[in-house]
Design a protein that fits this description.
alpha/beta; Ribonucleotide Reductase Protein R1, domain 1; 13 strands; 26% helix; globular; binds guanosine-5'-diphosphate; binds magnesium ion; binds zinc ion
């Protein structure tokens, strides 16, 4: 797996890390790996740990800003308080993940500061996301609650943290990786130390063959432009009602005989989930010219 740095690529292999550039052929095709890429490598020198990337394997997922390939799990962080829970931001992150074919996981951090009543309230919100089919983990970087469950989810895959500033992304990362020098880019044999600050996305290997990407300054919540009909599939508890409304082209916005409206009234679908579905759908209508 590749970690992109300023002028070269660090490739993590079963035989340790190698410092690499791309082959002439890849350069000619203007093909450049990014962090998360799986590549084929020709080793040039095992002592200085130099190599050349000859092929970039097909990406399973790709997000642009920051560039990250093959990420399969987006840990969507929020807090119940400090900062107060922002459900629109959370839903936006989930939709962002789903539109990029990443599995989202809902993570509520800073559980240590919650009273029993607040925990009960949070549990009701958590149930809404479970009902939508998402894994939910409650964590605390301070008490380490939930960290094992979180790392289990990351097993064997590339995960990344996302979420607004202040929810504890950096703190969680440094709790999980107390010796941050374990990051794969830190090749002690190369005269490249100190260049870390220029790196976009760093990778931290987990013992369980997983990785967590550190993605500073990312603009996750800028949803990509897609046809508005696709948004409903990002709200599974709404999409499950397909075919149950009176009109088969129902968009679930106050039409008569709408099964979704009925479930909202009954409290089966949370009102904010329905409102965000409509909001994001309308945003996509506004972005139509970007893809048509
Ligand atoms: N009580 C509590 N505070 C936390 C926790 N995690 C982070 N914080 C605090 O929240 C603030 C923001 O954390 P930071 O990791 O910088 O958030 P980021 O902006 O998402 O990277 C800092 O003051 C942290 O000490 C936690 O689990 N519990
Ligand atoms: Mg941070
Ligand atoms: Zn409907």
């Amino acid at each position: 797996m590749v970690e992109e740095q300023k002028n070269y690529f660090v490739v993590d292999t079963a035989e340790g890390s190698f410092l690499t550039t791309t082959s002439g052929s890849l350069k000619k095709q203007r093909k450049k790996p990014c962090t998360g890429d799986l590549v084929d490598l020709t080793i040039i020198d095992t002592d200085t740990r130099r190599g050349v990337i000859t092929t970039i394997r097909k990406r399973t997922t790709y997000i642009k800003r920051p560039a990250l390939a093959n990420c399969s799990l987006l840990l969507c962080l929020s807090t119940f308080k400090e900062p107060p829970l922002n459900l629109e931001t959370l839903d936006r992150l989930l939709v962002y993940a789903l539109l990029h074919e990443l599995q989202p996981c809902v993570v509520f951090n800073k559980a240590d500061i919650l009273s029993d009543d607040e925990r009960d309230e949070l549990e009701r919100v958590a149930d809404v996301y479970r009902h939508a089919g998402h894994p939910v983990v409650t964590t605390s970087a301070f008490s380490r609650e939930g960290l094992d469950a979180l790392l289990d989810l990351c097993s064997g895959r590339l995960a990344a943290f996302a979420g607004p500033s202040g929810v504890g992304k950096s703190t969680l990362l440094s709790t999980i990786f107390p010796d941050i020098d374990f990051r794969i880019g830190n090749l002690s044999c190369c005269a490249t130390r100190g260049t870390h600050t220029t790196t976009n996305v760093t990778l931290h290997p987990l013992g369980n063959k997983g990785y967590i990407a550190d993605t500073p300054g990312l603009a996750w919540i800028d949803l990509p432009a897609v046809p508005e009909e696709n948004i409903v599939f990002c709200f599974d508890e709404i999409a499950r009602n397909t075919g149950k409304c009176r009109f088969n082209n129902c968009i679930h916005d106050n039409e008569p005989g709408c099964a979704v409206d009925e479930e909202v009234k009954k409290g089966i679908i949370a009102p904010w989930r329905h409102a965000h579905y409509l909001k994001f759908r309308n945003e996509m209508i506004g972005k139509r010219k970007q893809y048509r």
